[in-house]
Amino acid sequence: MRRLSINALLVTLALSSSLALAQDKPAELKIGISTFTSGAASVFGVPAKAAAEMLIEEMNAAGGIGGVKISATFIDEGIGGDKLLSEYRRLVQEQGVKTMLSAISSGNCNIVAPVAEDLKILNVMWDCGTEKVLENKRYKYVVRTQGNATTEMVATVLYLLKMKPDFKTIAVINQDYAWGRDSWEIFINTLRVFKPDIKVVAEMFPKLGASDFSTEISRLQALKPDIVLSTSWGGDLDTLVRQAGQRGLFKQGATFVLPLLESSLERLGDAVPEGIIAGARGDHYWLHPETANDPKHKAFIAKFKARTGAYPIYPTYHMAQALVGLKTGFEAAIKANGGKWPAPDQVAEAMRKMKFTAYGREITMREDGQGLEAQLLGVTKRTPKYPFAVLDKMVLVPAELVTTPVGQLSTSWVKGINPALAKVLSTDQFKTHDFK
Amino acid sequence: MGSPRLRLLVALLLAAVLGLCIALPWIKTPVLLALSNGLAVLGVIVLIRAGQVSFGHAMFACLAGYGVAFAGRASHLDALLLVALGSVGAAAAGALIGLFMVRYRGIFFGMLNLAFSMVLFSVLGKFGAITGGTDGLRFDRPTFAGQALEREGFETALLGLALLLAVLAGLAVQRYFGSVNGQALAAIKSNETRLEYLGISAKRVFWGGYVLSAALCGIGGSLFALTQGLVTPEMGYWVRSGEVVFIAILGGSGHAVGAFVGAFVFEFVKLYAAALLTGAWQLVLGVVLIVMVFAAPTGLFGLVEKHLRAKVPQGSKP
Amino acid sequence: MDASLIVLALMDGVSYAALLFLVALGLTLIFGVMRILNIAHGSLYAWGGYFAATLGLAITQFGLPAWLGLPALFVAALVIGGLLGTLLEWALLRRILDKDPILQLLVTFAAFMVLEDLQRLIWGTQPVFVSDVVNQLGTLQVVGVTYTRYQLLVLPAVAVAAFFGLNWFLNRTALGRQVTAVTHHREMATAMGVNTHRVMGLTIAIGGALGALGGALASPTTSFTPGIGADMMVLSFAVVATAGLGQIGGAALAALMIGLARSFAVYLMPEVEVLMPYLIMVGVLLLRPEGLFSTVAARRI
């Protein structure tokens, strides 16, 4: 009798402990992903959604993350900041989502980061550029798996100085919100270090989602600046380039610097002329000089093109980085946790210590949650090979050279950059890759 | 206030809402949003009693919200103080703007309110250095009645406050409607000239109603801001004002309860539209309203109200 | 600000004002005849633009001659404005003529909401930009600045034609005079034997077509996304309120005023560009609540 009851006790203990271990792992890993599926920015957000679906399918086919399958819910950033916030909260509070990939818009990142911290869930900023989020506050639950505005803008300035060292006047036409304002601030403050007497002839900030730039274009034609900068993206950039082309703005001799142009190249086709300095917000490009022939990368490009009919653009690469980074982080956290399923802050902690590779160079994550990602810049070139412009004379700028160190604020750091850095891209250290 | 049946209905509705919030904790946020909206709708109902409609009243909710945000960022005031501050601010703005506004009637009244709200909307969106621009302003969660609470606790406390304010506001508005001023307000719709002949200044009565409506919108806006922790210029966009008027008619502009009935229906159709109606909540509600204007112009609550009137007492309780 | 910049601001302002005028014209016409402010007018603008873009795409897809592009815009406007406008009138506006003014406004607002969602369901949420018409017509230079012929010639020409055409119609044709009569006093016109229902139906169709024309003409130069109807609605409203409800000539001047204020702002003080229409509206309404050009106040008692 006693033996039976001891056996029964042992069996119960074994069952319950295995049940506890099994209960530890959730039935599925729920992720919430915010992206633009409506409005002007949807030309940007919809490919990213397709990439997410594709990659999650692949990951699940290989067993998911830590043996758990991923299930993703998408929310639309196009509904506006406060509605997005409601949706974000609903996913976390109603559906129990503990991992969010958010957001594309810098404005939305500013909104959701403190909320994620408050709700104690992991938030991976997968596309927004504003450097202010991670600089102004040390977050436990928020990380970023790509570069930030400082990295991108400083690299752009250096590339501009390399390609066109002599210019005196500049005009800017940026979207009027966090990204547009912050990116301009960093760009012009960096530029002033290298060219103290640069003259800003016009600062124009049409609203995000503006559908008509004709007056701004007239003004640019009248002022004839040497350089025209625009960090616009998505539908806004498309409209700007098309309208500028219609009005002959590209023919009047100014050099255009469009750091986010890579995502619009295929869509705009003939509307993009040669000679524009373009960026890709990171070292990703389906014609990447170093990884274009990498079998993993080639497979990704082929699969994406088959699925959506277009080549991958940088939002899709950023999504890939976020998902690969998430997987790497989870696996490291599971290991650190002795095989048990980690809590969101444990994953965030692991993510702050990791290195991972998506389809470009390796990305290093820093202790403040900021990812260090090299920057690819080039000049547009037309070729009979493709019905759209490609990037030529590409240079890859390592992030460590152009990113604000941990603990400092970009606004002050850029003002103290060493002026000698201006010539660094022209040294032998940096190869210029021509389009092949 | 009202008939015993009405009181019973209100008690039942309150119990239902509370029960829902206990059963499904996540539903507190939509309920809070519905209550904030309902308070703004209550403000618009006050104006509708005077036969006037404003297509810009979202600006008072917006002003209150931004007031809460500025105060919350600058100093660490308690949530209760913030609500008071936002509401008083909105009422003050209403008092000031009302001085101009009360000279207008009908379409011109509606248009001038719209114009003011669009100026506010544009200013908030453009002068980002002060207002945070189109991204809006965030502020940290304040203490509630001196207690520093976590998200869950704060939401529950805020819900309690919102329900209390909703009931008090509803009672106050119904009282106001029954009072001399309230009846004078209704006279502005039916025959303003006669009112003047009685020696009552229509403009002054209207001004009083306008300030009340602005204050109510302000309370709603403050609660909204505290729920979200974020204010954006969209709070003052003209379509928002239109939605508030829409809800007033949907719920029933004759009685305070209609404001909240309408607000809850609106909020929950929106919530489930994504899941059930492919996101086409505007289509559904638009059609519903058009049908209602023809079939039931007194709104959802108006349909019910008839049955709630106390029968003529025959010496025994109904 | 030197002379050349003034010329440029004028050019930009005029082309923008032309579009505003067309849309505002439709709105004020409908108000004049029905005494209802049709909030769904913004949807007509959006639908006109989307439909014009669809026609433009069809022309390219089916290999039709490219010169059809410009006429296609007018066809789109007529179809959408005429059909949708007439539908609105028959289904809704006609039946709310005697209702409480608040309910009238709400019905048109509800119609606006319905049309917004339908538009989203039909044309989706991604931006639509079909600009072949503009590219075909080429460019010209003014004070060293390149403008598209479309923007500088076609748009103002259409606006001017609409203005004079409408004035001719209203003053010189029998039907037009009936419309004017109904605008002044509906009951009196009925008593004099005017078929007010037919007149109202016609006016709505014309007004709707004008609103849709604004959208159709705007579509080759701007990208259409959800929400564009709401933005244009409140802008055209600002024009109509500034001019005075039912004032056609006033609408032209008000549209010019607002268009120029906006373009000058971009040159002088870009920060206040978006504010200009509403500041003007507030200013005018505070000083002259019936608008700048209204004659006898036809106020509801």
Low-confidence stretches of chain B: none
Helix content of chain A: 40-55%
Kindly report the spatial arrangement of strands forming the biggest sheet of chain B: 1-2
Tell me the Rg of chain A in angstroms. Answer: 23 Å
Oligomer: heterotrimer
The dominant shape of chain B is globular
Strand content of chain A: 15-25%
Classify the secondary structure makeup of chain B into a structural class: mainly alpha
Q: How far is the first residue's CA from the last residue's CA of chain B?
A: 16 Å
How many beta strands in the DSSP annotation of chain B?
2
Largest inter-chain interface? B-C, 44 and 45 residues
Distance between the termini of chain A: 82 Å
Mean pLDDT of chain A: 90
> What is the tally of beta strands of chain A?
15
The CATH top-level class label of the largest domain in chain A = Alpha Beta
State the main characteristics.
heterotrimer, A: 436 residues, alpha/beta, Rossmann fold, seven-stranded mixed β-sheet, five-stranded parallel β-sheet, 15 helices, 43% helix, B: 318 residues, mainly alpha, two-stranded antiparallel sheet, 13 helices, 2 strands, 75% helix, globular
How does this structure look, described?
The complex is a heterotrimer of chains A (436), B (318) and C (301). Chain A is α/β, with parallel strands linked by helices and 436 residues long. Chain A contains 15 helices and 15 strands. In chain A, the strands form three sheets. In chain A, strands 7-6-8-9-10-14-15 form a seven-stranded mixed sheet. A five-stranded parallel sheet of chain A has the order 2-1-3-4-5, with helices on both faces. In chain A, α7 links the parallel β6 (169-173) and β7. Chain B has 318 residues and is an all-alpha fold. Chain B has a domain at 36-236. Chain B has 13 helices and two strands. Chain B has helices at residues 4-23, 28-49, 58-74, 79-101, 106-126, 128-131, 151-178, 180-197, 202-228, 238-251, 256-276, 281-295, 299-308; strands spanning 137-138, 230-231. The longest helix of chain B has 28 residues, at 151-178. Chain B is globular and about 55 Å long. Chain C is an all-alpha fold. Chain C is built from twelve helices and two strands; from the N terminus they run αααααββααααααα. Chains A and B meet through α3 and α4 of A and α2 and β2 of B.
